[in-house]
Each structure stands twice: as structure tokens, then as C-alpha cells.
């Protein structure tokens, strides 16, 4: 009978597997010593496995040391069970992989990580798990089997019913389903036609067919396909009031790994609450959660409950609700021995919910990283991480860093917390710290979910290696796996903006808004930032108006609108955006924009005052790094306007000097030796795209020009061509080199490129105005006097309010007077 039962189970397992053959595992000897057929799942023995001070309670899925629970991830537990059930036998890696991850493609490194985790648990017994090179693994401890207390036999129950009943009693997770009662009279009438032996076999056959039919129905029945999901706050019935947000965060991390489910993000949740005239921090519970789900156009709500029963541990419940009807789809229940173990329980609840929402089994198997791997073993660390995330989303980056740091102090292997710590430093402009933490996250990312692996790689390429093409490829790969997720498309758009490929940036940004699960304020912002340098000003203004109409407003929108108004000479918009910024923490950014506009009009005194306020505001609101950036912007403006003495004085105030940007400014101000010294330094970031393809070529070209070698300058700038629109200073230097080399026609083309692209970020200085002066000189060299005169006159019109004794303007008037007049 035992062989028949396990044979059926193996067949059921093969049905549930996505492979063509059933999972393979060595034969299993039960407590009576009989041999059962090979099967991929171990359900026959539900007692204890005991070795030295350790016990394994397979029914409760608990590893105990001296009677106390030991923390172990679900997959590592399954690996351990497979080894312990076959002490002294060689278990191949292939057998372990097919048993623990049936039907899923899993890299061998994943298994190695779990073996390593088990060895750390058994650190005092280094020879428990032996590696046999080329063969597999062996569990070398002496294992005792301790059978559970047998239940008294019940009249009319078969052996099969007895086994099924015992397994049902030991299940940790329950799903509420409605089951029809059998027809007792029909069963009794049928039973009377058989002998007592026939009754036993009849009931056995009926049970087997029922079980087979149930699992086949579970596999092939139509699923409801509810993909757009809102995660509600947990109803917290414990004394720890932080559990609700933390469990919600954990569940969100777990669900984020699957491309099947589209989650409502915090931004859309908050904006929906505001439309309901509720504050953004209103708990997402009860009817409020259902209304948020329905208003957002989402299909299913997952709402959980946690309570602390009187005896021990925590009871968790997860309910899936149809947002359109408000009716329950299914309820799942579980129990955790302690709060850290609740993450494992939540894993099981989430997996069952995903299946009930219609996710295919193949997807469940492929995207099913346990929370202990995707996040942390420590619930306390997860609480700090959740607090940090909330503060970061609210723009309170300094406070967020404190909590992210607490999380990684508790669990240094908390990969995503390390990554978000790097992101927070990056957003604050602390690039070196961002690089360090992104590197740590990358090194710890072996076991995280696929979604988080893409996220961590993006941070690593952007912040540690600063390799923008590699980052763009990672975003592109990410978008192919998670095609309904706006995140990779937004990331790709932002990276393409940094590389100066605004066409690709616009394509990715438009895709994010059109096909993403939600339209985020960040998505609108990134696309607007791509439209502006592409000179699509009307599209940028339309997009910003659309976002603001939906309640998605950001300070960056107002900066973009102010910059476009500068280009279009729109005084009304300039006034309105300046007025908006008054009294806001982001005033420093608007002050710098005003400084650039004043410099663009030749109003030097006004520009100096605006820069002074912008630099002080940046230092107060952000940090000294951003203040340094603003100071170097002012120095760059002074150099362009020929104010070398003023620029030299300001260079002494820069705090962070060991950068290519600082060396470029020194060289432009006449200190060629400083530029040469920087070029001799070893590369700090060998794959840094902006440094190696833009800044270093520009610096080499400037040094060559100071040595009167324009040909070398032109050659140095060849590497910058693919990315030049990201840093148009290189276009300006190339134009100067062509002029110095006597190639006025090519110089004219470079100046025309600057004039034709007023929206470029690095053109938000007098550079566009001065391009008219450079073009006038190039045309004069070609003896195109009329065209040259026209460009000089454009310059004079743009600088009509500049001081009369403005040196560069005086020089332009002298050159203009020397042009031959055509009558």
C-alpha cells in the first residue's frame, strides 16, 4: 500500500512540475525499513530527525538546537531534509536541485549558498556536510528517527486515510475553501455491495482518484488573472505598533520579484488618498484600502492581519479581495514561532496568494526567492529599513541614511539596504560614499530576487563603476523581464539623458508612461528632462501641466519651466516660477537658475548676487559638495565672460579639488600645469563614462591648446563624439581648436551645433550667446562678412543690458568695426 501511495504522490509531483520528467531524488527508507519508489517530495515520515544536540521537526518545518529554534531559510531547510533523510549516502547536486527547485532553472551557486548557510549553523560540527568533489554531498552525522505518537485507529479508516489525516493535521499554512459534503447514504449503499476487504480497497481507490483529480484540477483549472495588486497595511493586533508597516514592506519586497504582479507604488497610493481628501499617511485599511484599490484601477487587494495568541508565537492571515466587488477571493493562515520566523510564514502566504491570483506555476517557481534572502534574517533590521524607505520617499535623505545604516549594522548582509544607503548618498551628491555602499550591495546580491538583482546592478554600474553603457544595458535587460514595470524604462531614460542620447531617452520615457503599471511623478520628470535638451519645449510644458493636474508636482518641474522660459525669453513664466520658489527649501536651485539667466543677459552684478544666495542655500539645505558644484558653475561663467581674475579668486574657495572638473577650470583660467598634473594621476574609476569620454578628453584638448597644438586638441576630442551632447563644453573646445587650426568652416559647424541646441543642460550659461560670437569670428575667417556681421548683431541685441565696459563685449565691438562693409 505504501508503494502505491508514494507512487501516486510522485505522479502528482510530476504534474505540478514544469519539467518533462518527475523530480528525481534517491529512494527513501521509512521508519519500518521498507523501501519506497523514488520520489521528488518527502512526506512519508513526520516524526523527528535527531543528531547530537540538533532535532528536525519536519511537520513544523523547524530546526532545533537543544530544544530552541534555529533560524534557517525555507530552501536551506529543504536541502537539509534531503541530506538528513539519506545519512551516509552521496546526494548529487543535480538530485538536490531537482528536489528542492523542481521544474525551475536555478544556478548551481544558489545551492552552494544554501550549503554554506547550513555549514555556518553547524559550525561546531565541520564534518556534518561533506563535499565529495565530482560526486555531490554527504551528511555524515549519525541520525536517529523518532516516530510521532500514533493516533488510535478509527473504525472504517484505511491506511491511506490515516496518512492523509496525519499530514493535514501537521500543515502550517491553511487556505479557506468551501468543500461540499459527500452524500453519506449513497456511500453506505455502495459499501454494502462489497466485502470488508473490498471496502478498504474501494475507499483507497476513491481517495487516490480524489487526490489525483484535485491536484490535476488545481493545475489545469482556469485562474482569475488578477495582476494589478494593492498591498494594504496589516491589521496589527499586537502591542508592537511598528509591525503593520514592516510586514507590508516585507510583503511588497516579496511580491516585487514577480513580473506577473503589478503593485501600486507609494506615490500613486498617496495621490489617490489625497483625491479622497485624506492625508497621505492615512492607514490603508478596511474600506479606505478598497477604495484606493478601485480608484487606482487595480484589481485585487491583499490585506493581512497579525496577532499574538496567548500561548506563543504569532498568527498571520493574508486575504485576497476583489476590489471591484469587495468579495473575498481566498484567505490564507499561518503561524510563526517568533517575529523573525514570520518572514518565512509570510513567504508561504504570499506564494499561495500569487497562485490564487492566477500566476502560473512556472513563474512561481522561477521568481520565488525567500524573504530571508531577498531582504534580511532580522525583523528589527527590516523595521529600520522600512522607516528609512519612508523617510527617503519623503525627501528626508539625511534621516533616511541613519535608519538604513542601523539596518545594515544589524545585518551587514542586507543587500537591498546597502543599495538604498548608496542611493541616498548618491541623491545627496556624496558620490564616493554612494560608490562604497553600491559595491557592498553588489557583492551581497548572489541570493536576492531577480528584481532586486537588476536594481542592485543598476546602482553598481551607475555609482561604483559609473559605466553608463553597462547601466543602460542592465535597464534594457530588466525591462524585457519586467515589461509592465515602469522602473527599468524610467532608469533607461534617465541614463540615456546622462549619455546625451535624448531620442532613446524620450522613447524609453514615453514607454514608461504609456505601458507602465503606474504613472509616477518621477516618470513625468525624467521624460520632461529628456524633452528639454531635445528642444521639445512645448512637449515638456504639456507633460508638466499634465502631471501637475494629477497632483504630481515636484521642484524639478519648476526648474525645468524656468529654464525653458529663459530660452524663450518668457518674462511672465520666469516671474511665476521664481514666485513659487520663495520660502521653499529648494529655493537654492531656483537662485542658481536665476544666476545663469542674469549671466546670459550679461548682468554680471545680478548674477553674482544670485550665485551667492544659491551657494549658501545649497550648503544649508544639502551639503558642501553641492555648494562646491554651484561655486564651480560661477567660476565657469566668469571664465567664459573673460573675468579670469575673478575666477582665480573663486577657485581658492573650492573645497573638493581632486576632480577633473576643478582641473579643467584651472586650465581654462591659465594654470596649465594643474591640468597636466591631473592627467598624470591614476584612474580612480576606469570605467567612468563621463570622466573617460568627456572630461579627460576635454582636459587633454585644453592643455594641447595652451601649448598651441590644436591638432592634438582635435584628436583628443574624438573619443567624446558619442556623448558630446551630454557635455557641450567639448563642442565649445573643439570649435576653439578648429579656429586655432585655421579650419573655420568646421569651427562654424560646431558653433552652429551649440546655437541649435539651447536646451542642453550645460548650455544653461552664456555659452549659447557666446556661440554667436564664435560663429561670427569663424565666418569672418571665411570672408563671409555679411553673415559675420549678422552674428555680431545678434550678440549685441542679446547683451543690450550688459555694462558698457564689459571686456568681452568691448572686444566684440572692436572686431565688428573691423569687418569690411558691403554697400
Task: Please explain how this structure is put together.
The chain is of the alpha+beta class and 823 residues long. 58% of the residues lie in helices and 8% in strands. It contains 38 helices and 15 strands. Strands 9, 10, 11, 12, 13, 14 and 15 form a seven-stranded mixed β-sheet that branches. A five-stranded antiparallel β-sheet has the order 4-3-2-1-8, covered by helices on one side. A three-stranded antiparallel β-sheet has the order 5-7-6. Helix 26 (587-600) runs antiparallel to helix 27 (604-621). It is elongated. The termini are far apart. Mean pLDDT is 83; it is low at 1-44, 149-205 and 214-223.
Give keywords.
single chain; 823 residues; alpha+beta; seven-stranded mixed β-sheet; five-stranded antiparallel β-sheet; 38 helices; 15 strands; 8% strand; elongated; disordered N terminus
- Helix % is 55-70%
Broad structural category = alpha+beta
- List segments where confidence is low: pLDDT < 50 over at least 5 consecutive residues: 1-44, 149-205, 214-223
Give the averaged pLDDT, no decimals.
83
Strand content: 5-15%
Amino acid at each position: 500500500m505504501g508503494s502505491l501511495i508514494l507512487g501516486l504522490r510522485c505522479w502528482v509531483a510530476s504534474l505540478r512540475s514544469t519539467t518533462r520528467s518527475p523530480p528525481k531524488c534517491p529512494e527513501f527508507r521509512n521508519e519500518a525499513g521498507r523501501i519506497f519508489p523514488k520520489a521528488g517530495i518527502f512526506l512519508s515520515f513526520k516524526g523527528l530527525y535527531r543528531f547530537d544536540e540538533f532535532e528536525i521537526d519536519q511537520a513544523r518545518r523547524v530546526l532545533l538546537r537543544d530544544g530552541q529554534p534555529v533560524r534557517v531559510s525555507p530552501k536551506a531547510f529543504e536541502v537539509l531534509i534531503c541530506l538528513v533523510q539519506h545519512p551516509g549516502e552521496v546526494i548529487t547536486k543535480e538530485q538536490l536541485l531537482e528536489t528542492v527547485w523542481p521544474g525551475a532553472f536555478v544556478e548551481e551557486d544558489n545551492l552552494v549558498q544554501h550549503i554554506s548557510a547550513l555549514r555556518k549553523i553547524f559550525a561546531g560540527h565541520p564534518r556534518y556536510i561533506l563535499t565529495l568533489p565530482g560526486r555531490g554531498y554527504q551528511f555524515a552525522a549519525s541520525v536517529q528517527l523518532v516516530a510521532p505518537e500514533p493516533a488510535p485507529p478509527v473504525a472504517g479508516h484505511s491506511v491511506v486515510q490515516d496518512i492523509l489525516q496525519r499530514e493535514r493535521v501537521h500543515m502550517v499554512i491553511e487556505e479557506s475553501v468551501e468543500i461540499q459534503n459527500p452524500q453519506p447514504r449513497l456511500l453506505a449503499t455502495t459499501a454494502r455491495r462489497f466485502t470488508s476487504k473490498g471496502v478498504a480497497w474501494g475507499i483507497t481507490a476513491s481517495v487516490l482518484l480524489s487526490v489525483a483529480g484535485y491536484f490535476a484540477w488545481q493545475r489545469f483549472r482556469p485562474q482569475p488573472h488578477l495582476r494589478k495588486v494593492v498591498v494594504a497595511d496589516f491589521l496589527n493586533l499586537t502591542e508592537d505598533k511598528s509591525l503593520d508597516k514592516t510586514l507590508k514592506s516585507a510583503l511588497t519586497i516579496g511580491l516585487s520579484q514577480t513580473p506577473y504582479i503589478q503593485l501600486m507604488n507609494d506615490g500613486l497610493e498617496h495621490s489617490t488618498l489625497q483625491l479622497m481628501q485624506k492625508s497621505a499617511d492615512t492607514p490603508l485599511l478596511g474600506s479606505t484600502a478598497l477604495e484606493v484599490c478601485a480608484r487606482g484601477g487595480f484589481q485585487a487587494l491583499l490585506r493581512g492581519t497579525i496577532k499574538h495568541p496567548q500561548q506563543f508565537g504569532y498568527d498571520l492571515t493574508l486575504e485576497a479581495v476583489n476590489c471591484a466587488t469587495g468579495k473575498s477571493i481566498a484567505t490564507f493562515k499561518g503561524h510563526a514561532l517568533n517575529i523573525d520566523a514570520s518572514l518565512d510564514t509570510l513567504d508561504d502566504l504570499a506564494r499561495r496568494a500569487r497562485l490564487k491570483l492566477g500566476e502560473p506555476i512556472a513563474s512561481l517557481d522561477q521568481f520565488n526567492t525567500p524573504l530571508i534572502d531577498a531582504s534580511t534574517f532580522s525583523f528589527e533590521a527590516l523595521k529600520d529599513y522600512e522607516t528609512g524607505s519612508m523617510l527617503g520617499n519623503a525627501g528626508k535623505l539625511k534621516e533616511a541614511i541613519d535608519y538604513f545604516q542601523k539596518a545594515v549594522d544589524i545585518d551587514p548582509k542586507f543587500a537591498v539596504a546597502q543599495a538604498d544607503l548608496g542611493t541616498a548618498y548618491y541623491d545627496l551628491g556624496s558620490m564616493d560614499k554612494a560608490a562604497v555602499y553600491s559595491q557592498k550591495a553588489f557583492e551581497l546580491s548572489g541570493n536576492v530576487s531577480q528584481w532586486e538583482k537588476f536594481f542592485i546592478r543598476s546602482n553598481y554600474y551607475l555609482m561604483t563603476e559609473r559605466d553608463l553603457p553597462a547601466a543602460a544595458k542592465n535597464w534594457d535587460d530588466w525591462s524585457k523581464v519586467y515589461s509592465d514595470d515602469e522602473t527599468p524604462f524610467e532608469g533607461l531614460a534617465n541614463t540615456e539623458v546622462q549619455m546625451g542620447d535624448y531620442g532613446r531617452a524620450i522613447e524609453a520615457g514615453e514607454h514608461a508612461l504609456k505601458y507602465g503599471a503606474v504613472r509616477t511623478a518621477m516618470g513625468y520628470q525624467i521624460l520632461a528632462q529628456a524633452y528639454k535638451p531635445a528642444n521639445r519645449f512645448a512637449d515638456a510644458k504639456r507633460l508638466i501641466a499634465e502631471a501637475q493636474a494629477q497632483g504630481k508636482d515636484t521642484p524639478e518641474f519648476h526648474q525645468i519651466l524656468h529654464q525653458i522660459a529663459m530660452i524663450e525669453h518668457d518674462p511672465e513664466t520666469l516671474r511665476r516660477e521664481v514666485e513659487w520658489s520663495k520660502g521653499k527649501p529648494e529655493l537654492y536651485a531656483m537662485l542658481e537658475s536665476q544666476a545663469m539667466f542674469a549671466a546670459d543677459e550679461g548682468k554680471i552684478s545680478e548674477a553674482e548676487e544670485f550665485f551667492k544666495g544659491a551657494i549658501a542655500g545649497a550648503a544649508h539645505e544639502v551639503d558642501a559638495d553641492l555648494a562646491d558644484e554651484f561655486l564651480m558653475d560661477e567660476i565657469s561663467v566668469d571664465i567664459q565672460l573673460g573675468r579670469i581674475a575673478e575666477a582665480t579668486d573663486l577657485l581658492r574657495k573650492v573645497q573638493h579639488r581632486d576632480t577633473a572638473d576643478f582641473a579643467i577650470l584651472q586650465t581654462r583660467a591659465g594654470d596649465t600645469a594643474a591640468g597636466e598634473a591631473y592627467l598624470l594621476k591614476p584612474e580612480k574609476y576606469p570605467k567612468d563614462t563621463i570622466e573617460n569620454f568627456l572630461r579627460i578628453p576635454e582636459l587633454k584638448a585644453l592643455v594641447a591648446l595652451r601649448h598651441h597644438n590644436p591638432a592634438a586638441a582635435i584628436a583628443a576630442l574624438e573619443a567624446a563624439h558619442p556623448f558630446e551632447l551630454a557635455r557641450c563644453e567639448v563642442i565649445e573646445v573643439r570649435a576653439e581648436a578648429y579656429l586655432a587650426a585655421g579650419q573655420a568652416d568646421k569651427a562654424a559647424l560646431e558653433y552652429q551645433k551649440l546655437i541649435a541646441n539651447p536646451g542642453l543642460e550645460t548650455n544653461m550659461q552664456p555659452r549659447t550667446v557666446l556661440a554667436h560670437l564664435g560663429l561670427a569670428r569663424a565666418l569672418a575667417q571665411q570672408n563671409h562678412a555679411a553673415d559675420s556681421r549678422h552674428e555680431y548683431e545678434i550678440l549685441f541685441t542679446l547683451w543690450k543690458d550688459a555694462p558698457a565696459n564689459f571686456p568681452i563685449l568691448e572686444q566684440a565691438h572692436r572686431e565688428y568695426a573691423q569687418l569690411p562693409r558691403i554697400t
